[in-house]
Write a structure and sequence with these properties.
This protein has about 425 residues and is of the alpha/beta class. Helix content is about 45%, strand content about 15%. The chain contains 20 helices and 13 strands. About 50% of the residues are buried. Bound molecules: pyridoxal-5'-phosphate (PLP).
């Protein structure tokens, strides 16, 4: 499979995965997608209902990237990437929670970050090169990236985060990894961090001294592995539920785009449900046909507080800009903060299951969809984070704090190690060289 930019309408061959992952964004400012339609339906059909996640991931990787990764290489990358697995938890009335938070940072972003890290390591190992991953974070992405790249040969990681503006637990996650991962605590805002990273990528001297690359969420190497858990969940449930739908709590819509890719490769999923909080730019587009980005609103499901979703361009491109086609596959739902709190409370009381605020959005959207469909149509709601990551929100909903997952509990006694710097490119340059 080859890849080309969403903004490239030419019909050339496209570039290799290995080149696309080191570029991140395409040179024309677009996002990478497969050049044509691959048909993986035979691979999907070959997955048994007790297939492990690792086996499913390895088969799909080999099928997708066979041109540049032989079977041994695909297996090595997946083995390194996935030391953790998703889990499916059945609730009542054909609703399943697809738990994606069993990785090192307790959020679904671990799947994408780990696979990207393992792929980059595989490429650099063969070429005997070194690279520096430079990334700005407001919390979640940084911790997944830090853990994914920890201990990788040939790769150093530098994370910029705004001083005093990430939660204490998030700061622990960013600053206690050590080894090849450095945390720079910037006297400024998240926007300052992002600007400094952008400036660094444009700075000729810096780029001559170091091979700088990014690991942000639009990277193709993070998108592709996010398709694997849709495929795995489908294989697990297809005997009972041939018509399983997925509900995806969305912010930048990378997760949903990955599900769409799986469907374009032949996964027989009748449809998806895109669930957002008050940042409902995509649901509004599906309703009105008008895409109107706007500044983001702060909500309780804050990893979904995105006012201009970067993957919308990918979604449009996958449907060739055809709104009706998109409406045929993606339904939408919007969930308020009050509803999120009520849902966390109600589901804990009635079903004995503890939801994080993002999963609560997906849960309520799924139940509404079932109601509108006139019956308990089978649905899998993607659970994107462990409730223990959102102590304050769960506390507000239930009156008591959630248990911390062991991965996070282990961080509490560790000492923060970061370098405090100013918010100019010059400050960053001094820290890098
Ligand atoms: C990043 C994130 C999301 C949103 O995922 P997108 O791919 O940006 O739509 C949802 N929930 C959690 C917990 C996240 O960290």
């Amino acid at each position: 499979m080859r890849f080309k930019s969403t903004r490239d309408s030419g019909s050339h061959q496209g570039i290799l995965y290995r080149d696309a992952i080191f570029q991140g964004l395409a040179p024309d400012g677009g996002l990478y997608l497969p050049t044509g339609k691959a048909d993986l339906s035979a691979v999907f059909a070959s997955l048994s209902r007790d297939v492990s996640f690792l086996e499913a991931a390895t088969k799909v990787t080999a099928a997708l990237l066979g041109e540049e990764m032989d079977d041994a290489s695909a297996e090595r990358v997946c083995r390194k990437a996935f030391s953790f697995e998703p889990e499916l938890k059945p609730l009542k009335d054909n609703l399943y929670i697809l738990e994606l938070f069993h990785g090192p940072s307790c959020a679904f972003k671990d799947f994408g970050a780990s696979f990207l890290a393992a792929s980059m390591e595989e490429v650099l190992r063969k070429e005997h090169k070194k690279a520096v991953i430079l990334t700005a974070t407001s919390g979640d992405t940084g911790s997944a990236v830090a853990r994914a790249f920890y201990g990788k040969d040939n790769l150093d990681v530098v994370i910029l985060y705004p001083s005093g503006r990430v939660s204490p637990l998030q700061e622990k996650q960013l600053t206690t990894v050590g080894g090849n991962v450095r945390a720079l605590e910037v006297r400024g805002s998240f926007d300052d961090c992002q600007r400094m990273v952008k400036e660094a990528f444009l700075d000729r001297d810096l780029n001559e001294a170091l091979t700088l690359t990014s690991a942000n969420s639009i990277n193709l190497g993070r998108l592709i592995p996010q398709s694997f858990y849709y495929i795995w969940a489908w294989a697990r449930l297809r005997e009972e539920h041939a018509d399983l739908r997925f509900c995806v709590p969305s912010g930048n819509f990378g997760n949903l785009s990955a599900g769409l890719l799986a469907r374009f490769w032949g996964l027989p999923v009748p449809g998806f449900l895109a669930a957002t909080n008050a940042n409902d730019v995509v649901p509004a587009y599906l309703k009105t046909g008008e895409f109107q980005p706007r500044p983001s609103l702060q909500t309780l499901s804050n990893a979904m507080d995105v006012g201009n979703p970067s993957n919308f361009e990918r979604m449009l491109s996958l449907f060739d800009g055809d709104l009706e086609a998109m409406r045929g596959v993606i339904a939408e739902a919007v969930v308020s903060d009050d509803e999120t709190l009520q849902t966390i409370r109600k589901v804990k009381e009635e079903e004995g299951y503890l939801l994080d605020p993002h999963t609560a959005v997906a849960y309520l959207a799924s139940r509404r969809y079932q109601e509108q469909s006139g019956g308990p149509v089978p649905m899998a709601a993607l659970s994107t984070a462990h409730p223990g990551k959102f102590v304050e929100v769960v506390q507000e909903a239930l009156g008591q704090a959630p248990p911390l997952p062991p991965q996070l509990r282990a961080l509490l006694p560790l000492e923060k190690r970061s370098t405090l710097i100013g918010n100019s490119l010059e400050d960053l340059r001094r820290a890098l060289i």
